[in-house]
Amino acid sequence: MTNDIKYKGNKIVTMAHSIQKTKKSEAFAIINRAVLSGAEPLTEYALANLYSFFLPAKTKKPKTSQAWIANAIADCDVRHYLNFAHVKDKELAATDGHRLHAMPTDLPDGYYDSAMNPVDVDGKYPDTERVLVQDRSKPILLDLSKTEIVHNAYKGKPDDVYLFNVGDKQLAFRTKHINEAVVLMENPMISFGTSTFITDGTHKAVVMPIRL
């Protein structure tokens, strides 16, 4: 019986991510019909609609490591597998193609949504381990209070960037990506290469530089 319940839940979660996000009025209408109908059970489609409505949104200041992972999940990317987190060999990872968040986990291999519920997804997830172990410079302590910020624009909207002097080069990164990478880290260490790696030993983040 327990396995049947788990499968049904996974089916509903998967269905919730294949439909357009439910509006507040639609969610209320579903609940209202359920209340008025008494004991009549909700259909799987109705449950999927409610799940999509109540799925927690991303937050700039995550309270948990799983919410931190969720911040790196892509939003409506045409590469549909990037719209979910992924577990392989005890490592939970999420990437939107511009940054990567990863950490150890006991979750089974597979795809997960932002609430860390399993989802059935077709597609091959990127080789995140290859990105995490790239050759980079010697790690140094990251002190953002001493890092230069310049004003920039992203997709026509104000979007500040951090500037790092690395050798004879100056690398720029969206402040959003750096701030969200370190928000749960104590004494984060940073190292530079083709991509930039930031870690506190448990949380691992990779951020791609941008062109100004």
Supply database-style keywords.
212 residues, 27% helix, 3-stranded antiparallel β-sheet, alpha+beta, 6 helices, elongated
What does the secondary structure layout of this molecule look like, with pairings?
Elements: H1 2-16, H2 24-36, H3 44-54, H4 65-70, E1 85-88, E2 91-95, E3 99-104, E4 110-112, E5 118-119, H5 128-132, E6 140-141, E7 148-150, E8 153-154, E9 157-158, E10 161-166, E11 169-174, H6 175-182, E12 189-191, E13 196-199, E14 204-207
Q: What does the model show?
A:
It is a single chain. With about 210 residues, the chain is α+β, with helices and mostly antiparallel strands. It has three domains: about 1-55, no CATH class; about 65-130, no CATH class; about 140-205, no CATH class. Helices cover about 25% and strands about 25% of the residues. The protein is built from six helices and 14 strands. Helix 1 crosses helix 3 (about 45-55) and helix 2 packs across helix 3 (about 45-55). The longest helix has 15 residues, at about 1-15. Mean pLDDT is about 90; it is low at about 1-5.
Structural class: alpha+beta
* Overall pLDDT: 89
Largest sheet, in brief, is: 9 strands, antiparallel
Spatial ordering of strands, largest sheet? 5-4-1-2-3-14-13-12-6
Short description:
This protein is α+β, with helices and mostly antiparallel strands. 27% of the residues lie in helices and 25% in strands.
